[in-house]
Design a protein that fits this description.
Strand 8 (about 190), helix 7 (about 195-200) and strand 9 (about 205-210) form a beta-alpha-beta unit. The protein has helices at about 45-55, 70-75, 80, 110-130, 160-170, 170-185, 195-200, 215-220, 250-260, 280, 300, 315-320, 325-330, 340-345, 360-370, 375-385, 390-405; strands at about 15, 30-35, 60, 85-90, 95, 130-135, 150-155, 190, 205-210, 235-240, 260-265, 285-290, 305-310, 335-340, 350-355. The chain has two domains: about 15-215 and about 390-410, 3-Layer(aba) Sandwich (Rossmann fold), CATH 3.40.50.2000; about 215-385, Glycogen Phosphorylase B (Rossmann fold). The chain has a nine-stranded mixed β-sheet with strand order 1-4-5-3-2-6-7-8-9, with helices on both faces. By secondary structure, the chain is of the alpha/beta class. Mean pLDDT is about 90; it is low at about 5-20. The two termini are about 35 Å apart.
Length: about 400
């Protein structure tokens, strides 16, 4: 999860009406990504895998449904509904925004939301002339899997959704029940985290571990990016990029600040996080929080720090997540100090130091700041990130999703 607020949506190359049919070379086939995040919002995994997959195959990106009430509460969503609800945003990539009724994920209303979303998807697929359809589902609460005429059913478990329920104020029992229904329907499950893959592997015969990737190209520009003018801390600087919220183990950050080194926090506050918990830390002269930043500005911030931090606690959600920032830090040439989450251990990078206690964590940060790395170390980190890009992950998705879809028995 990166630290930006929003990024500008790519210019529409042609209205959706100018592309009524799919490319015949693809056999009227398409991947439908029923995304967990609005396309024009922060660049999470959904947008990045969709763009990488669109380099290989036709993709329909379906925004999470929103109601008029949610659009009033979240003005950033309004632009998606002031444009045509179906529009082409890049070659091979079409976006669909879906309206729903208020209370769309509440018990009872979730069924209505599912029906409305599925109907919009079916209408779009008919318009595009799609006949072979792989549906990638991410929603345990209002799923459309099995309702869109798809040939292949894929459940993409981006996180430990059951562990995430409490953080979002949802019923853990409801989320677990919804996930179980998806597992019964899915032909294949894609897990983004080794802990989730292990858990779901006990309940589904075909689970593929495909972790999140990184934007090595964007963050590889960190060294040459212009330095932001709002950083007031002296270097060397230890930096955290991401949402400021309950996922962070504040003991780690406090211990780092106790050493006297500069500590920079980059990112928005999680809506449910009580910022007062940070007051003592932020009052220190060697600590600065610059708030949320646009995605395109992030390389400049990473180019202005000397070590990247992942100070997450061991909550169920964190244990079942894949912190994108690990690969983004490495792509920027930074050494990383992190707590020992399963995804971090899975990466097994020599440039990620793992410490789970505050004092050793802080000592590792001090050591990294004292020796941020020579040109060989920086290049090694970038090369490592280059092995874990979204382009690499898209090829793995293609193997799991597109190849079965195009097999003769799928016709």
């Amino acid at each position: 999860m990166t630290a930006e607020t929003r990024r500008a949506e790519p210019a529409v190359t042609a209205p959706a009406g100018a592309r009524e049919r799919l490319d015949r070379d693809d056999g009227n086939a398409i991947i439908v990504l029923r995304a967990a995040n609005d396309y024009s919002g922060p660049r999470f995994a959904d947008q990045q895998i969709a763009e990488a997959l669109a380099q290989l195959h036709p993709v329909l990106y379906v925004d999470p449904p929103t109601s008029i009430v949610s659009r009033r509460r979240h003005p950033e969503l309004r632009a998606s509904y002031q444009e045509p609800k179906l529009r082409r945003i890049a070659p091979n990539l079409t976006r669909l925004s879906v309206s729903a009724l208020p209370g769309m994920e509440r018990p009872g209303m979730a069924t209505v939301t599912s029906a409305l979303t599925a109907r919009a998807i079916r209408q779009t697929l008919r318009r595009l002339g799609a006949r072979r359809i792989a549906l990638i589902e991410t929603s345990p609460l209002a799923p459309v899997m099995g309702k869109c005429g798809e040939s292949l059913h894929v459940y993409w478990a981006q996180d430990d959704y059951v562990g995430l329920a409490e953080l979002l104020g949802l019923s853990e029992k409801r989320v677990a029940s919804g996930e179980q229904r998806l597992l019964r329907r899915a032909d294949v499950v894609i897990a983004a985290n080794p802990r989730v893959a292990e858990r779901l592997g006990d309940r589904h015969h075909h689970v593929e571990l495909i972790p999140f990737g990184g934007d090595a190209e964007t963050f590889g520009r960190a060294e040459s990016a212009a330095a932001p003018d709002d950083i007031r801390l002296p270097r060397p600087i230890a930096g955290f990029m991401g949402h400021i919220g309950d996922r962070i183990d504040l003991r780690m950050l406090t211990s780092v600040a106790d050493t006297g080194c500069s500590l920079l926090l980059i990112g928005p506050r999680h809506p449910r996080f009580d910022v007062s918990a940070l007051e003592t830390l932020l009052a220190r002269s060697n600590v600065q929080w610059v708030g949320p930043k646009q995605f395109d500005a992030l390389p400049g911030y990473l180019g202005s720090i000397d070590a990247g931090l992942i100070p997450y606690n061991h909550s169920a959600f964190n244990e079942g997540s894949f912190p994108l920032k690990a690969l983004e830090y490495l792509a920027a040439g930074l050494g990383v100090i992190a707590t020992g989450l399963p995804a971090i251990r899975w990466l097994d990078s020599p440039d990620i130091v793992i410490e789970d206690q505050p004092e050793p964590f802080a000592l590792a940060v001090r050591a990294a700041l004292a020796a941020p790395g020579d040109s060989a170390a920086i290049q090694r980190r970038r090369n490592f990130a280059g092995q874990h890009t979204w382009t690499v992950r898209a090829r793995e998705f293609s193997r799991v999703v597109w190849e079965p879809l195009m097999a003769p028995e799928s016709s």
